[in-house]
Amino acid sequence: MATVAVRSTARHVLPRVAPTLWATSSSCRGFASATSAPAQSKKPLRMLIMGSPGSGKGTQTERMMKHFEMEAISSGDLLRKHIKAGTEIGTVAAKIIAEGGLVPDGVMVNLMTEELQKLKDKTLLLDGFPRTLPQAEALDVALASNKMPLDLVINLDVPPEVILQRIEDRWVHIPSGRVYNLSYNPPKVAGKDDVTGEPLSKRPDDNVETFKKRLDNYFSMTKPLISYYENQGKLRSFHGETSDIIAPQIKEELAKWYAKQ
């Protein structure tokens, strides 16, 4: 993926909110570091984590996996893998994302179904999929056919202005997927990955103008999805401006589910 460095004047308008990442110190909030093995559920638990682009789904997924045994499937990671490899799906997805759009349902359903078939009898967490009602319905069919019904939907509710500031300050090391943020998780050397020393990049869609379009698309497309899972009694929404505010809420909810499984 080509390196793109875009700076926006929106930086001077948006309120700066600096969310903090999970840390190993016992004094940190949220999911503190675990000194024992992740908790196991008595039977497989099927979960989905939802949230707009930039809401912190990846961060919360990492924290959950530290404390609860599960397998995670990230639609974003899968797409980036295909984009990097230059596959047919990756080429189509790269063009759509660069223009601020969302990848079509058919492409995502095929991509995720292929991954789901690799998981049997395991607790799993889907990240970033489904994003539309047709995708959710297709997912339910796929899970039901494999006797893996969805149990819980975790919805991250983060204010849009906070998300836009995060995106403005986000840089990534494309080969490893390591993410840095100039506000709260900067690289040790400006513009360089901490581990390899290689240059950091801006994802093509990591600019405020494009992200505003993505947020508008996301909220429009997922409104029916929220209602869909709410009507099924599976939706749990967690509100906050930082990952450390939301994390303990999720941990408390998951502890209940793992205890009763």
From TrEMBL:
<comment type="subunit">
    <text>Monomer.</text>
</comment>
<dbReference type="Pfam" id="PF00406">
    <property type="entry name" value="ADK"/>
</dbReference>
<feature type="binding site">
    <location>
        <position position="135"/>
    </location>
    <ligand>
        <name>AMP</name>
    </ligand>
</feature>
<feature type="binding site">
    <location>
        <position position="170"/>
    </location>
    <ligand>
        <name>GTP</name>
    </ligand>
</feature>
<dbReference type="GO" id="GO:0046033">
    <property type="term" value="P:AMP metabolic process"/>
</dbReference>
<dbReference type="GO" id="GO:0005525">
    <property type="term" value="F:GTP binding"/>
</dbReference>
<keyword id="KW-0342">GTP-binding</keyword>
<feature type="binding site">
    <location>
        <begin position="179"/>
        <end position="180"/>
    </location>
    <ligand>
        <name>GTP</name>
    </ligand>
</feature>
<feature type="binding site">
    <location>
        <begin position="101"/>
        <end position="103"/>
    </location>
    <ligand>
        <name>AMP</name>
    </ligand>
</feature>
<dbReference type="Pfam" id="PF05191">
    <property type="entry name" value="ADK_lid"/>
</dbReference>
<feature type="binding site">
    <location>
        <position position="214"/>
    </location>
    <ligand>
        <name>AMP</name>
    </ligand>
</feature>
<dbReference type="InterPro" id="IPR033690">
    <property type="entry name" value="Adenylat_kinase_CS"/>
</dbReference>
<feature type="region of interest" description="LID">
    <location>
        <begin position="169"/>
        <end position="206"/>
    </location>
</feature>
<comment type="function">
    <text>Involved in maintaining the homeostasis of cellular nucleotides by catalyzing the interconversion of nucleoside phosphates. Has GTP:AMP phosphotransferase and ITP:AMP phosphotransferase activities.</text>
</comment>
<keyword id="KW-0496">Mitochondrion</keyword>
<dbReference type="GO" id="GO:0046039">
    <property type="term" value="P:GTP metabolic process"/>
</dbReference>
<feature type="binding site">
    <location>
        <position position="243"/>
    </location>
    <ligand>
        <name>GTP</name>
    </ligand>
</feature>
<keyword id="KW-0547">Nucleotide-binding</keyword>
<feature type="binding site">
    <location>
        <position position="80"/>
    </location>
    <ligand>
        <name>AMP</name>
    </ligand>
</feature>
<comment type="similarity">
    <text>Belongs to the adenylate kinase family. AK3 subfamily.</text>
</comment>
<dbReference type="GO" id="GO:0004017">
    <property type="term" value="F:AMP kinase activity"/>
</dbReference>
<dbReference type="GO" id="GO:0006172">
    <property type="term" value="P:ADP biosynthetic process"/>
</dbReference>
<dbReference type="InterPro" id="IPR028586">
    <property type="entry name" value="AK3/Ak4_mitochondrial"/>
</dbReference>
<keyword id="KW-0808">Transferase</keyword>
<feature type="binding site">
    <location>
        <position position="75"/>
    </location>
    <ligand>
        <name>AMP</name>
    </ligand>
</feature>
<keyword id="KW-0418">Kinase</keyword>
<feature type="domain" description="Adenylate kinase active site lid">
    <location>
        <begin position="170"/>
        <end position="205"/>
    </location>
</feature>
<dbReference type="GO" id="GO:0046041">
    <property type="term" value="P:ITP metabolic process"/>
</dbReference>
<dbReference type="GO" id="GO:0046899">
    <property type="term" value="F:nucleoside triphosphate adenylate kinase activity"/>
</dbReference>
<dbReference type="GO" id="GO:0005759">
    <property type="term" value="C:mitochondrial matrix"/>
</dbReference>
<dbReference type="InterPro" id="IPR027417">
    <property type="entry name" value="P-loop_NTPase"/>
</dbReference>
<dbReference type="InterPro" id="IPR000850">
    <property type="entry name" value="Adenylat/UMP-CMP_kin"/>
</dbReference>
<protein>
    <recommendedName>
        <fullName>GTP:AMP phosphotransferase, mitochondrial</fullName>
        <ecNumber>2.7.4.10</ecNumber>
    </recommendedName>
</protein>
<dbReference type="InterPro" id="IPR036193">
    <property type="entry name" value="ADK_active_lid_dom_sf"/>
</dbReference>
<dbReference type="GO" id="GO:0005743">
    <property type="term" value="C:mitochondrial inner membrane"/>
</dbReference>
<feature type="binding site">
    <location>
        <begin position="128"/>
        <end position="131"/>
    </location>
    <ligand>
        <name>AMP</name>
    </ligand>
</feature>
<dbReference type="InterPro" id="IPR006259">
    <property type="entry name" value="Adenyl_kin_sub"/>
</dbReference>
<dbReference type="InterPro" id="IPR007862">
    <property type="entry name" value="Adenylate_kinase_lid-dom"/>
</dbReference>
<feature type="binding site">
    <location>
        <position position="203"/>
    </location>
    <ligand>
        <name>AMP</name>
    </ligand>
</feature>
<feature type="region of interest" description="NMPbind">
    <location>
        <begin position="74"/>
        <end position="103"/>
    </location>
</feature>
<feature type="binding site">
    <location>
        <begin position="54"/>
        <end position="59"/>
    </location>
    <ligand>
        <name>GTP</name>
    </ligand>
</feature>
<dbReference type="GO" id="GO:0005524">
    <property type="term" value="F:ATP binding"/>
</dbReference>
